[in-house]
TrEMBL record:
Keywords on record: Membrane, Transmembrane, Transmembrane helix
Transmembrane parts of this sequence: 74-95
Matching Pfam families: HTH_24
CDD domains xref list: HTH_ARSR
Keyword ATP-binding (UniProt): no
Keyword check for Transmembrane: yes
Designated name of the protein: Transcriptional regulator
Domain of life: Archaea
InterPro entries: ArsR-like_HTH, WH-like_DNA-bd_sf, WH_DNA-bd_sf
PANTHER family linked to this entry: HTH ARSR-TYPE DOMAIN-CONTAINING PROTEIN, TRANSCRIPTIONAL REGULATOR, TRMB
Length: 287
């Protein structure tokens, strides 16, 4: 991890140095150098004391026209000042890159170490919130932590940069998870869809009753056919559900990679058994 980050930082530094070397000549061309002119009439006050008035008797009247001065004609001290001023951003980046900890003389420059990442109270709170609520989205984090949108976004990016968390995008939006090898990508995706009550209901029904039709799903869940189709399309988009047509009937199944996972999520298995009983009642109505 450290070698990878160092390699990335080295490439970034090399790019910045190259950019500076290429841009410096362009800056010189654009400015056209410096132009020195006599100080006639620079100040309307006290010209007799501070300046020689411009007139035909002025000792500078016969001087040639002012000429531009190239960078190479400037004194060394001026060149050094310009070089330092022009490379301030690069110097600040180098300090941040190679000097650990806080730099009190340069406000805002901090080089974080992974072990120090959760020392920040707000970042630690966000991390714990994600760990305890897998699949949580930024709006939910803001509500649960009482932090601002910008604050949450900043700390989420830090946690992502240091690989403490991962973000997963689904048809229902983005959710955040703790970066753990115990969670598969399929389980994370299923968790995101299970946050929606209707989709959790549909997943439970399909887990207990593979091959069920849209009409049967709507009858058990108590929702309309178009609503079933809308939620099924989102589950299908993220490869959780597949549809197989047999004649005029379309059968719905949980895809192979998600079979069994639904039962590992809190409440899915219990919910599925309740819907299964409801299904039996709907398919075998009392005469």
């Amino acid at each position: 991890m450290g070698v990878k980050n160092l390699a990335g930082n080295t490439r970034t530094l090399a790019f910045l140095v190259l950019a500076f070397v290429l841009v410096l000549p362009v800056m010189a061309i654009e400015t056209g150098g410096y132009e020195v002119r006599p100080a006639y009439s620079l100040s309307p006050d006290d010209t007799s004391r501070d300046f020689i008035p411009a007139s035909s008797t002025s000792p500078f009247a016969g001087e040639p026209e002012p000429q531009p001065i190239a960078y190479s004609d400037l004194p060394l001290a001026v060149l050094l000042v310009l070089a330092i001023a022009g490379t301030c951003t690069l110097q600040a980046y180098l300090l941040r890159l190679f000097v650990p900890g806080n730099l009190p003389l340069i406000s805002g420059l901090v080089k974080l170490h992974r072990k120090e990442l959760l020392v920040n109270a707000s970042r630690n709170l966000i991390y714990r919130t994600i760990r305890e609520n897998p699949g949580i989205n930024p709006s939910e984090i803001e509500r649960m932590t009482n932090l601002t949108n910008k604050n949450v976004a900043y700390h989420l990016n830090k946690l992502l940069d240091y690989h403490l968390i991962v973000d997963v995008k689904s048809a229902n939006g983005k959710g955040y998870f703790r970066n753990s090898s115990t969670d598969s990508s399929s389980e994370r995706m299923l968790r995101l869809h299970s946050k929606n009550p209707t989709e959790r209901m549909i997943i439970a029904i399909l887990s207990s009753n593979p091959g069920i039709s849209r009409k049967e799903i709507g009858s058990i869940a108590g929702i309309s056919g178009p609503s079933v189709s809308w939620h099924i399309s989102r589950l299908e988009k993220d490869n959780i559900v597949e549809k197989i047509r047999e004649g005029t009937i379309v059968h719905h199944y949980i895809k192979e990679g998600f079979k069994g996972l639904s039962e590992t999520l809190t409440g899915i298995q219990q919910t599925g058994s309740v819907y299964e009983e409801s299904l039996r009642s709907s398919l075998n109505p009392v005469e």
